[in-house]
Structures are given as C-alpha cells and as structure tokens.
C-alpha cells in the first residue's frame, strides 16, 4: 500500500466511522418511525452483504448460503420468540447458524470452489423443502406468527449487530488470520504448504460469518409477524448479499456497506411498485459489475480519487 | 401392488427422460464452455411459455414449437456467449476467475430473463391440455403426452449424441472440451465452438421447456427449480458425458417418483441428499474420469 | 539416521503407477538431485513427501517420525518446505507479505509481529529481493518470483527444502546465480532435495543423484556414477 493512501485512511477511517456511528445511534431521537424502519432494512442488508464478504471476499469462495443462515435465524425467532428474551433468541439464532455453517463448511470446503458454490446454491432449497415438509407433517402448520417487538428495539439490535460485525471484520482483516484468508484466495495450495491450516481456517471463518446472518434473521423476523418456509428461506437473500457486496466492492469493508445501502434503498423505493423492474435492474447491474467494475464502486472511487489527487497509478 | 410398482417406475423413467435432456444442455455449457449456467432454467421457462402462447393464441401444435423454440433459444444463447461471456473470458486472469465471474454473470441473466418474462407473461400459472388421452400400458394408465415427451427427449438426446460423435463440428466440440489450447492449435476456432456449445445448451433447455409444457403447467418463476435439478443430474452423471446425463436423469427421476410415492414433499430433499453424498464421495460423477 | 527416508512409496492415478515402490533417503546436510524424463514421477514424489498427495502404500519418515499422509500444513510445521514447478507466489500480496506469510505460519507456535517482520526482511535480503519488497509479487520477473518462493519457503524455518525445477526457464546467468543461492542455503544448515532438468546445475552442486523412470527408481549415485550409468544414458537417449 502506498504511504499516501494509508495516511488518508488513517486520517479519515476511524474518525468518519465514529461520526457515522454516532449519527446512527442517535437517529431515532430525531427521525420518523418510517425512516427508522427503512434504515433497519438497510442495516439488515448491510449485515448480510458485509458478513458474506467477511468470508467470500478474501478467499474467493462464492457462498450462496446466506439465505439459509438468515432463514435459520428467522425460524429461531419464530419458534422461541414468545418465551425467550429477545437478546437470547438472537444469540441462539447466531449460534445455530454457526453450528450449521461449521458442519456445511467442514463437509464442503474441501471441494473445488465451483462445487462449493453449487452446494451452497442448493442448500437453501434443501432446508426450505425439508422444513416445509417437517412443519406440515409434525406440527401441522405451514407458517408461524412471530412475537412482535417495537421498532426502536429492532433498530438498535440491528445496529448493534452491524457494529459488532464491523469490528469483527476489522479485527480479522488486520490480524494474521486476515492475511492467511487472503493467501487462500491468492493461491490455496501454496498457503497450505507454508503452514496455513486452510480447511480449518475456511470453515471457522465461514461459520463466523454465518453468526451475523443468523442474528440478522432473528432480529428482522420480529417485524415480519408471519413467516413460512418460502418467506424465510428465500434464495433471493443470498443473491442480494452477493450482488450488494460485489457492486460495492470488496477491497474495503465499506464497499459492501455502500453497495447494500444503495440497493436496500432502491428496493424500498421500487420493489413494492415495480417488483419486476427492480429485479430486472438488479440483474443488469450484476452483469455490468462483473463486466466493467471488478473492484466495485469503492474501487472506482479510489481510482478516481487517485487520478484527481495525482501521483503514479502504481499497482497497489 | 405390482401395478403400483410398475406405475412408480414408469413415472420415474418418464420424468427422468426430461431431466436428462435439460441436464445434457447444462453439461455441455459447463463441460466445454466452463460456464455454470444458473440461468439454464430460464431458457426452459422461455420455451414453455412461448409454446403456451403459440398454442393458445395461434393454435400452433406444440411439436411444431420444438422447431421454433429450439433455434430461437440457440440464437439467444449464441449471441449471449458472443457478447457477454466472450468478454469475461478475454479479461479473466485465470480459469478459476472465469468460472466465478461467469457464474455470477449467469445470475444476472437469470434475473433479467425471469423478470422480462414476468413482465411479458405475468406471474399466472399457464397450462394447456394436449394429447391427454390415456394410454394403457402394462396395466397402468398414462397420458399420451407423457409418453410422447419421453420419446422426444430420448430422440433428441440420441440425435445430439450422434452429432457429437459423427460430425466434424461435433468432434471439434469434443476436442475443445478435452483441451482447448491444443484444439485451438489444430485449427478449431475456439471462440466459435464455445458460443456454439452455449447456444446448443440453451437450445436443449428451450426444447426441454416445450416438452415440459406439454405435461405440466408453466410459469415465470419455474426456472430455478429446474436449474437445481439439472445441476444435480450433471454432478450425478459426470460433466460433459451425455450417457452420464441420461443415467443421472433416470436415477433422479426414479428416486423422485419413489420418494413422492412414499413421502410426498420430500422429493427435492431426496435429490439433494443424493447430491451431497455424491459431491462428498465422488465429485467427478458416477461415470466421470 | 537419515533426515528423510521413504520405503516402498507408491501412488497410482487411475490404473497408472505414477510412483512405484520407490525407496529413498536424504541425509542431513546433503544436496540430493532427483532427475528423470518427463512424466517419470518426480513432481508426484515431491507431492507425496510434502503432503499434497497421500501415498497408497509405503511410508515416509522425517528423522524417524512417520509423516505419511499428514496434511501439508502439518508437514510444513514439522520442517519440510517446498517450491513449485510452476511458480505459486501470492500475486496480489507484496513481496514482503509473501515472505511474512512463511514466518507467521511456518511454525505452529506464537510469534512477535516486529520480530516476524525482521525475519522476513532477513530472508528477502538473503535471496536479494530487498529492493522490491513493497512491490506486488505479480510484477516480478520469473527469476525473481522463483527467488521469492525460495525466500517464502525458507521463512517457514525448514530443515529440508524441496526445490521443484528451480532453474527451469532461466537464462545461463540466472542459472549460475541460482546455483550459488542453493549452495548458500546449504551453508545455512538446510538440507536440499531438488528436481532439476538443467543437467549442468544438478551435476555441479549435488552430492548424490537419484533417477526415476516410469515411476521407478532406476539408478542412484554420485554425479560421476550417474553420468556413466548405462541404463540412465539409455533412458535419456531413448527419449
């Protein structure tokens, strides 16, 4: 990394982040209920995209499983939300997702990247169909009603899980753990031969990223009042997480945050009125991103800033 | 009892023929062009809905639709490869990067095709009845349309198999699948071959969609389920193997019909369990190298 | 006791024997060469030793300890490092980060960040890449990428270093420099087992040479003995 850029980040990074967080924390004091629920939605997608990027950005393994862990969280809330305190339910949603991801990761992260993608792609469908069958057969219900929590509590718990996730991402990226994850994405074979326990590292990181997806599901379920397997295990949430992270750019933690914020807002504006057009735009942006924006919006912004600020356009 | 068993087995085989046909297309796209085409099911959906429109609005015989939808899907696939995937191929740093990027681009395609179709056809479930006269067969009853689609699936699979093994183009495709670099040196126009393969894969899906619409209702969001099934069949049979795809299709069709008979609602779960076991034990497929 | 010892090591691919009942040993402080025509099983043997592949039969011992079938990272921790036939640097990491990876992960126990950086810089200096330590590894020339791989392997603190065709693709000057590098590595007390096609290099620096052909060991001896061995000459001329 060039010294100039590092300096700029040191100056701008933590200060701006703290300011933004302070703004977010005091938001309910002066904002309308509508904008608070909108922001909760945006934060939910931010958590999904950022936790996806936590594992997939450095390693290059494309996971299409976020919707599975998200759904596990939703059902944890749906089943336990009436008896258990909210925080415990959320923690349990994260914990169950963690265990499921540990199992899935241990089984499939030995496979080549494309097989892993295929596997996770089907995982959501598997859980959905299995759960649908299970519910109808053993509990005699198709869907469930969820204990409702007030908007402000939902907002703050979502914000808290976002802050925790941001912190986790930051700590992992800065540590030798983060370096090892990157080495897996660069050349997994070489990483293994210089002493990195690649399978263990991939599995545990995958599982940690699932905690946040599960937690996000457990929190947001309390606002949906009614869920069934089709609502909870909707593969769209996987695709959203992937697109948002890619579109925002994965070279920096703020990339997925930016991508998720933009798309979550677009969804709010477009989805109810023009659902098909929204999804159409979604597809077009995905293709444009893959074709022309390999480093996403954040990469584009960095490139523009480098050009404006000047200096050699050296590969960093 | 015996009749029930025969019925379950035949139902499975009939379904398996369709599964095989759509899997052959995906297998070709991934086996040769290295594109895990997540939008495969959308071409099936397009074939089905187009056939429905032609039949209900103009009275076009679904068999004739085969000859319309096949070439149309081919052209669409060919052009998509020439514009989108060729660019990805040219810019990718490594084969692994291309596989990831092309899969993501295929996701984009999935959203585009699906929602264009939803805008054009709406989200209603569309069906028509065609050749539903019952046929007696070994003491069981089957719609003539089911038998016809099965026969067509086998026929198309066979023609395609002969095409790959006997014609010059077919041999070039197989050469490109084995070793793109050498095939390129031997004078095979690789970009042309890859686009051809992607187009042929799309054509298989389109034709599969026509056949599916003869027996089952079709709708705008049906694609994903068929994509999942095609992926499972391909992994089951081994990538790039046509006999493998047919074997995989029949196995999956049989498992599906047996499980549906025993415990309706678990068919997809059973498919998936097979898929997991296979990936873990033998990721190259049952007939793979 | 030999540092590394293999007995009856065998690996098939499909029905084809890539390595078949091969016995070998490497004594501490030696430079041992492994030669043979293309497809003789040299790289496969290295993959078996380093844990990338598991042998179907036979045992491999490091200082008497059975290491057969252990995972690559465990074998690295036990003291065997390697380079690759086709260079496998981490292309988008800086040169320093590449070597730092070796220091940080080469041994299972803890580390001190400052000390790790110093160690990495020491190894970069050793292979002569200090000047480009902040460059991304992908921007290096082939010979420098190979040196980087060596530095990264050395940074894991190995007792035995496996070098897979280190000289392939280098020009004569670079080959001479690399030969000198290999000798300096040995002076550090590190034992070397190397696959090589460049005959001048292997004859010049090896204490002992092993010849593989069709997965079997057909000869073993000093460079002088190998150069005069009838079977070896036939194998090479018969190609």
Q: What does this protein look like?
A:
- The complex is a heterotrimer of chains A (316), B (289) and C (239).
- Chain A is an all-alpha fold and 316 residues long.
- Chain A has helices at 3-30, 33-59, 66-80, 86-108, 113-139, 151-174, 176-193, 198-224, 229-232, 236-248, 254-270, 275-292, 296-309, and strands at 144-145, 226-227.
- Chain A has a single domain, classed as ABC transporter involved in vitamin B12 uptake, BtuC (Orthogonal Bundle).
- Chain A is built from 13 helices and two strands; from the N terminus they run αααααβαααβααααα.
- Chain A has a two-stranded antiparallel sheet.
- Chain B is mostly helical and 289 residues long.
- Helices cover 77% and strands 3% of the residues of chain B.
- Chain B has eleven helices and two strands; from the N terminus they run ααααββααααααα.
- Chain B has helices spanning 2-31, 40-58, 62-91, 95-121, 144-166, 168-178, 180-185, 190-215, 223-237, 242-262, 267-281; strands at residues 134-137, 140-143.
- A two-stranded antiparallel sheet of chain B has the order 1-2.
- In chain B, helix 1 (2-31) packs antiparallel against helix 8 and helix 5 packs across helix 6.
- The model of chain B has no long low-confidence stretch (mean pLDDT 86).
- Helix content of chain C is 39%, strand content 25%.
- The mean pLDDT of chain C is 91.
- The N and C termini of chain C lie far apart (37 Å).
- Chain C has two domains: 1-70 and 162-179 and 192-239, P-loop containing nucleotide triphosphate hydrolases (Rossmann fold), CATH 3.40.50.300; 80-157, no CATH class.
- In chain C, the strands form two sheets. Chain C has a six-stranded mixed sheet with strand order 6-7-8-3-9-10, with helices on both faces. In chain C, strands 2-1-4-5 form a four-stranded antiparallel sheet, with helices on one face.
- Chain C is globular, with a radius of gyration of 18 Å.
- Chain C contains nine helices and ten strands.
- Chain A binds chain B through residues 60, 62, 107-108, 111-115, 117-119, 121-122, 125-126, 129-130, 132-133, 136-137, 235, 239, 242-243, 246, 276-277, 279-280, 282-287, 290-291, and chain B through 36, 38, 84, 87-88, 96, 99-101, 103-105, 107-112, 114-116, 118-119, 224-225, 228, 231-232, 235, 263, 265-266, 268-269, 272, 275-276, 279-280, 283.
């Amino acid at each position: 990394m060039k010294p100039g850029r590092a300096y700029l980040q040191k100056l701008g990074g933590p200060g701006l982040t703290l300011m933004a967080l302070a703004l977010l924390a005091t938001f309910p004091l002066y904002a309308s209920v509508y904008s608070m629920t909108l922001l909760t939605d945006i934060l939910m997608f931010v958590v999904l995209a950022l936790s996806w990027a936590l594992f997939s950005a450095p390693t290059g393994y494309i996971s299409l499983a976020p919707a599975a862990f998200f759904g596990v969280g939703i059902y944890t809330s749906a089943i336990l939300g009436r008896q258990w305190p909210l925080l415990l339910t959320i923690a349990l949603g994260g914990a169950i997702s963690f265990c499921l991801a540990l199992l899935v990761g241990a089984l499939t992260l030995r496979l080549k990247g494309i097989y892993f993608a295929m596997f996770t792609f089907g995982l959501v469908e598997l859980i959905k169909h299995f759960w649908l069958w299970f519910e109808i057969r053993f509990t005699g219900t198709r869907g469930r009603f969820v204990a409702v929590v007030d908007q402000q509590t939902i907002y703050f718990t979502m914000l808290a899980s976002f802050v925790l996730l941001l912190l986790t991402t930051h700590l992992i990226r800065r540590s030798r753990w983060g370096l090892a994850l990157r080495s897996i994405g660069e050349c997994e074979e070489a990483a293994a031969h210089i002493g990195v326990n690649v399978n263990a590292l991939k599995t545990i990181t995958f599982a940690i990223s699932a905690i946040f997806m599960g937690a996000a599901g457990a929190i947001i379920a309390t606002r949906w009042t009614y869920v069934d397997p089709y609502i909870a295990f909707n593969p769209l949430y996987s695709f959203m997480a992937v697109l948002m992270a890619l579109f925002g750019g994965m070279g920096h933690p703020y990339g997925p945050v930016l991508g998720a914020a933009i798309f979550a807002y677009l969804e709010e504006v477009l989805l109810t009125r023009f659902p098909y057009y929204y999804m159409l735009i979604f597809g077009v942006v995905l293709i444009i991103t893959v074709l022309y924006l390999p480093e996403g919006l954040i990469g584009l912004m960095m490139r523009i800033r480098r050009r404006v600020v000047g200096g050699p356009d050296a590969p960093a | 009892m015996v009749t029930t068993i025969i019925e379950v087995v035949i139902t499975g085989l009939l379904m398996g023929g369709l599964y095989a046909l759509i899997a052959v297309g995906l297998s070709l796209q991934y086996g040769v062009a290295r594109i895990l085409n997540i939008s495969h099911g959308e071409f099936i959906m397009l074939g089905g809905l187009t056939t429905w429109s032609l039949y209900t609005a103009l009275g076009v015989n679904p068999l004739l639709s085969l000859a319309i939808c096949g070439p149309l899907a081919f052209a669409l696939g060919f052009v998509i490869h020439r514009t989108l995937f060729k660019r990805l191929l040219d810019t990718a740093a490594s084969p692994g990067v291309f596989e990831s990027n092309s899969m993501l681009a295929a996701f984009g395609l999935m959203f585009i095709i699906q929602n264009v179709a939803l805008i054009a056809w709406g989200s209603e479930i569309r069906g028509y009845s065609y050749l539903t006269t019952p046929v007696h067969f070994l003491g069981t009853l089957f719609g003539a349309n089911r038998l016809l689609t099965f026969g067509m699936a086998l026929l198309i699979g066979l023609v395609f198999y002969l095409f790959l093994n006997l014609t010059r183009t077919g041999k070039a495709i197989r050469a490109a699948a084995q070793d793109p670099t050498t095939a390129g040196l031997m004078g095979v126009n690789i970009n042309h071959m890859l686009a051809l393969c992607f187009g042929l894969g799309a054509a298989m899906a389109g034709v599969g969609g026509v056949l599916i619409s003869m027996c089952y209702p079709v709708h705008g969001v049906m694609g994903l389920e068929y994509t999942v099934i095609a992926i499972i069949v391909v992994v089951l049979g081994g990538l790039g193997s046509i006999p493998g795809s047919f074997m995989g299709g029949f196995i999956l069709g049989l498992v599906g019909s047996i499980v549906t008979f025993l415990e309706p609602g678990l068919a997809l779960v059973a498919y998936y369990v097979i898929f997991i076991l296979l990936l873990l034990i033998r990721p190259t497929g049952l007939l793979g190298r | 006791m030999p540092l590394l010892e293999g007995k009856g090591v065998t690996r098939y691919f499909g029905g084809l024997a890539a390595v078949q009942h091969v016995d070998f040993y490497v004594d501490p402080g030696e430079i041992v060469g492994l030669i043979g025509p293309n497809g003789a099983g040299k790289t496969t043997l290295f993959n078996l030793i380093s844990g990338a592949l598991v042998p179907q039969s036979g045992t491999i011992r490091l200082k008497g300890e059975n290491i057969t079938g252990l995972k690559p990272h465990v074998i690295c921790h036990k003291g065997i490092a390697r380079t690759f036939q086709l260079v496998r640097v981490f292309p988008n990491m800086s040169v320093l980060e590449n070597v730092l990876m070796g220091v940080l992960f080469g041994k299972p126990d803890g580390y001190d960040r400052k000390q790790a950086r110093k160690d990495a810089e020491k190894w970069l200096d050793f292979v002569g890449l200090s000047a480009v330590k902040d460059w991304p590894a992908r921007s290096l020339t082939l010979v420098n990428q190979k040196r980087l791989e060596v530095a990264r392997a050395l940074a894991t603190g190995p007792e035995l270093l496996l070098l897979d065709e280190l000289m392939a693709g280098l020009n004569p000057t670079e080959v001479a420099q690399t030969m000198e590098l290999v000798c300096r590595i040995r002076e550090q007390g590190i034992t070397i087992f190397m696959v090589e096609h460049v005959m001048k290099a292997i004859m010049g620096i090896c204490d002992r040479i092993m010849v593989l052909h069709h997965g079997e060991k057909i000869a073993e001896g000093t460079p002088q003995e190998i150069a005069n061995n009838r079977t070896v000459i036939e194998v090479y001329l018969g190609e």
